[in-house]
Amino acid sequence: MTATEAETSVTAAPRRWDPVVKLTHWTIVGAILANGLITEEGSGAHVWVGYALAATLALRLLWGVIGPPEARFSAFPPSPGRALDHIREIAEGRRSEHASHNPLGALMVYAIWSTLAAIVVTGVLMVAAPDKPRAATDARPVAAATLDREPPEREATGEREETGEREEAGEGREEEGPLAEVHEAAVNLLYVLIVLHIAGVVFETRRSGRRIVLAMLPGRR
User: Can you name one GO molecular function term for this protein (predicted)?
Assistant: First the structure.
């Protein structure tokens, strides 16, 4: 370690996450786990967990404006240039202290927040979307129906079979509109970002020797 690096590590303020940052972080983790592993997609529980996630994300974004210095957006602005400098720093074996997220971590945070926002918005819009009327799609010309009419029992049986086939083969896919596709794509992207985030935390912990996960626990820095 050079003299400059030693001086930086001595004079840099220790990273401390305030209670609101810790609360929002673990609440978001819990909501993702609940809707990803426990609740059924489209169920009432799934929707309410989504609302809780939206409220928690809104609180964290508000805290990024009015919270303590290390929690504000100004402490970790998204900067691809600084992220590239940080990658070069890692390649050269140098280390520097950051009061908040390092430049790569900052990009990851904003990517996760943006993806969560897309998930929340599309989820809310899907819940608010009115049901599509189905009567018009099943209508047939009256004249053709009367000319080619089967006995009541056979007709009823045929209609039930036709309806069941439509529900299994086609109507379920019709409900998958653009909102559902964007929602599902955002969820899959979120899972990829989470894996990369965990890998980054493990790598940075080994590289810097700092217990980054423990810093998010109550009473720890």
Answer: electron transfer activity
Contact 35, 123 (CB under 8 A): no
Q: Where are the domains of the chain?
A: 19-127+154-216
What secondary structure does DSSP assign to 40-89, as a single string? PTTSHHHHHHHHHHHHHHHHHHHHHHHS-GGGSGGGS---HHHHHHHHHH
Angstrom distance (rounded) from CA 138 to CA 140: 7
Domain 19-127+154-216 belongs to what architecture? Up-down Bundle (1.20)
H/E segment holding residue 191: helix 178-208
Q: Tally the residues of the chain.
A: 221
Residue 168: pLDDT over 60: no
More confident residue, 103 or 170: 103
Whether the CB-CB separation of 214 and 139 falls below 8 Å is answered with: no
Q: Residue 136: what pLDDT? A: 45
What are 177-221's pLDDT values in tens digits? 899 999 999 999 999 999 999 999 888 888 877 777 777 877 654
CB contact set of 170 (below 8 Å; sequence gap of 6+): none
pTM: 0.72
The amino acid sitting at 120 is V
3-state percent helix, strand, coil for the chain, nearest multiple of 5: 75, 0, 25
